[in-house]
Amino acid sequence: MKKKTHFELRFLHISLLIAFLFGASVSVSASGIGHGRLTEAETLYIKQRQLLYYRDEFGDRGENVTVDPSLVFENGRLKIAYIALQAWKQAILSDPRNLTRNWVGSNVCKYKGVFCAPALDNPKIRTVAGIDLNHGDIAGYLPEELGLLVDLALFHINSNRFCGTVPHKFKHLKLLFELDLSNNRFAGKFPAVVLKLPSLKFLDLRFNEFEGTVPRELFDKPLDAIFINHNRFVFDLPDNFGNSPVSVIVLANNKFHGCVPSSLGNMSNLNEIILMNNGFRSCLPPEIGSLKNLTVFDVSFNQLLGPIPDSFGGLVSLEQLNVAHNLLSGKIPASICSLPSLQNFTYSYNFFTGEPPACLALRSFDDRRNCIPARPLQRSAGQCKSFLSRRPVDCSSFRCKPFVPSLPAPPPPSPPIVPVPSSPPPPVVRPLTPPPPPPPSPSPPPPPVYSPPPPPPPNPPPSPSPPPPIVYESPPPPTPVYEGPLPPIYGVSYASPPPPPFY
Ligand SMILES: *[C@@H]1O[C@H](CO)[C@@H](O)[C@H](O)[C@H]1NC(C)=O
Ligand SMILES: *[C@@H]1O[C@H](CO)[C@@H](O)[C@H](O)[C@H]1NC(C)=O
Ligand SMILES: *[C@@H]1O[C@H](CO)[C@@H](O)[C@H](O)[C@H]1NC(C)=O
Ligand SMILES: *[C@@H]1O[C@H](CO)[C@@H](O)[C@H](O)[C@H]1NC(C)=O
Ligand SMILES: *[C@@H]1O[C@H](CO)[C@@H](O)[C@H](O)[C@H]1NC(C)=O
């Protein structure tokens, strides 16, 4: 089994190598390295690039990298990497911490933030395996040439000011394992190119300006972590949501609406899910109760209705439960507050009418602004009366789709995608040959996510500052802007909140 995997990888690598050499030759001739006269095709290519310069949506701004013939490179791949990194340097408009100042000369492995490791397919040569410019405060964009870095396993640029779109040529990064673009200024549609990355396990797009829908194929990919919170996605979760094998998924602070899908109950790897501050409007599906490994469940600041299902008593690993700021009602099931690991249960700002004594014994709980008799800080009698006199909630009226397991989407037609073993170990971190450890540590490494963590880097990666601790609460990749508490209720940051129907 392993053998086969490895074989496939080698095969993949060889075909990629060919593709990359081909790609490189295009790039080289287009950059005027060949000193002869330009052919008509080359002129056209350059023209097109210059045209594209003004057409940002293609992500190709026409960098012009020439390689000084006097430069000597350790191997051909590092020369290609030089082209990619120099193109990137040209696309950097501001680098206040001078991180790219030493990006000169042929020794790209010495460039700050660039990490080399033995190539997977040829351990005798070094290639660029990781990039970590986290917390660089760099302004600029990502040039298409970055697609030349085909040996890249880690690409971490969180907390910078990169804008524009994600280059289409990222599709060549077949070994990319972790992609962290969080806390930048990327915009436009969901970067569909990530769907073409067969090795990707960790996808972090949070705190950007992506908008529109999220392709349903995302949930059929063998990802371990998805962070897309704090963008502008507007979307109903599709019925294949439950196919996702993620252990952590954070969708908070977008404009997802529709149902909390019952297929959640099939996400047996799930450890943490945060759906807070969207527009979900349905009941809580009882299937959720079967998630034995779930530790964090947060659906606060939505418009969920109905009771908390009794089945939630089956969430035996649950530590943090937040259902606050919804329209939930009924009595809190006693089994929930007796869950062995539950530390913090927040159910304020709903319309609950009863809570078992066990809840009051929890280490931390918040039952304010409900309709619970004899408890302090409840809603007014009038509010409770008007809400509770309405017709009882009919959960089937939301017409939430039942879970229909869907087959994974067929691979995109054009690029030769080699299927990747869906379970760990990811190719990058456990090759048969002496492991070339991917260099920088995962940037915001949610400790639970990486059960098989990438082996330690050869030299400790001098990450500019310690990665933000990520766990619960969609940890803002640190920007002062997001450090404050969430907006009090629907409204402030939530663009067009359907006004709460009551009071
Ligand atoms: C690229 O840059 C070189 C030198 O920096 C210049 O001679 C050449 O004309 C440029 N080519 C294009 C297409 O801009
Ligand atoms: C970066 O380089 C500029 C110019 O040499 C210098 O003025 C500035 O202080 C440097 N910034 C840092 C953070 O080192
Ligand atoms: C999803 O869960 C349902 C009910 O638990 C089960 O019948 C179904 O087979 C599951 N599907 C998958 C793909 O695991
Ligand atoms: C749940 O956690 C246990 C222990 O942590 C682990 O052995 C098991 O494989 C996990 N189950 C799933 C489906 O991830
Ligand atoms: C409990 O969870 C709520 C909501 O996430 C949070 O605001 C509060 O600080 C937590 N309390 C403790 C003691 O962790």
From TrEMBL:
Its main location: secreted. SMART domains: LRR_TYP. Keywords: Cell wall, Cell wall biogenesis/degradation, Glycoprotein, Hydroxylation, Leucine-rich repeat, Membrane, Repeat, Secreted, Signal, Transmembrane, Transmembrane helix. It comes from the Eukaryota. InterPro entries: Leu-rich_rpt, Leu-rich_rpt_typical-subtyp, LRR_dom_sf, LRR_extensin-like_regulator, LRR_N_plant-typ. Residues 84-116 form the Leucine-rich repeat-containing N-terminal plant-type domain. Residues 423-478 are annotated as: Disordered. GO terms for biological process: cell wall organization. The keyword Signal applies. Residues 1-30 form the signal peptide. It is found in: Secreted, Cell wall. PANTHER family: LEUCINE-RICH REPEAT EXTENSIN-LIKE PROTEIN 3-RELATED (PTHR32093). Modulates cell morphogenesis by regulating cell wall formation and assembly, and/or growth polarization. This is Cell wall hydroxyproline-rich glycoprotein.
